[in-house]
Amino acid sequence: AQSVAQPEDQVNVAEGNPLTVKCTYSVSGNPYLFWYVQYPNRGLQFLLKYITGDNLVKGSYGFEAEFNKSQTSFHLKKPSALVSDSALYFCAVRPNNNDMRFGAGTRLTVKP
Amino acid sequence: ETGVTQSPTHLIKTRGQQVTLRCSSQSGHNTVSWYQQALGQGPQFIFQYYREEENGRGNFPPRFSGLQFPNYSSELNVNALELDDSALYLCASSLGGAGYEQYFGPGTRLTVT
């Protein structure tokens, strides 16, 4: 079955420290990979995507993600966290043009 | 803010009733997808419309149906509402093609009593 896993429900980091939000997937073929962020009472907002090419992709607000094909992972990273980064983060996988799978989400809390 | 709008914002319905949710896509986008997001969960893909035709569907029963209009706006219809249909319903628009990111609306909160 095609699926996306975010193994951590919650990630807590101190402001200024690096952060990582993990994502692994189980999808056949070469899927397209995305990260979205959801702030309270708001829709999802696109952060970045991996289509092909360089395994390290850069996105909005200083976020980046590393694609690892052998480990089927697409972890979200940021070198220095901000309090304003606190939100709900979703990894998503698009196995083809007709389907989209989201992970269950990881709540990131950045403490001052 | 994206250019995707949804109406209504909130809705309360009774079990067995029917509901229609509406979505206006971002200018220039020809693809609309609908998602159901239950409390504490990730969005679940309901279906996708491309140029007025449904071209993808998730694991949802036929009582979930949709339309896309020539201006690429869209409707989600749910018949015979069940309590488990209570959720946030998200609409997302994009250009056609799997590699394009989606732009989400703020959602419609449906409560079924």
Q: What does this entry look like structurally?
A:
With 112 residues, chain A is mostly beta strands. Chain A has no helices and twelve strands. Chain A has strands spanning 3-5, 10-14, 19-21, 24-26, 32-38, 44-50, 56-58, 64-68, 73-78, 87-94, 101-102, 106-111. In chain A, the strands form three sheets. In chain A, strands 2, 5, 6, 10, 11 and 12 form a six-stranded mixed beta sheet that branches. The mean pLDDT of chain A is 94. With 113 residues, chain B is mostly beta strands. In chain B, strands 2, 4, 5, 6, 9, 10 and 11 form a seven-stranded mixed beta sheet that branches. Chain B is globular, with a radius of gyration of 13 Å. The N and C termini of chain B lie far apart (32 Å). The mean pLDDT of chain B is 94.
Relative strand content of chain A: over 45%
Question: How would you characterize the largest beta sheet of chain B?
Answer: 7 strands, mixed
Assembly annotation = heterodimer
Number of helices of chain A: 0
Shape of chain A: globular
The dominant shape of chain B is globular
Distance between the amino and carboxyl termini of chain A: 41 Å
Helix content of chain A: under 10%
Distance from N terminus to C terminus of chain B (CA atoms, Å) equals 32 Å
**Can you tell me the residue ranges of chain A where pLDDT is under 50 for at least 5 consecutive residues?**
none
Rg of chain A, nearest Å:
13 Å
Tell me how many strands of chain A there are.
12
Q: Considering DSSP H and I runs of 4 or more, what fraction of the residues of chain B is helical?
A: under 10%
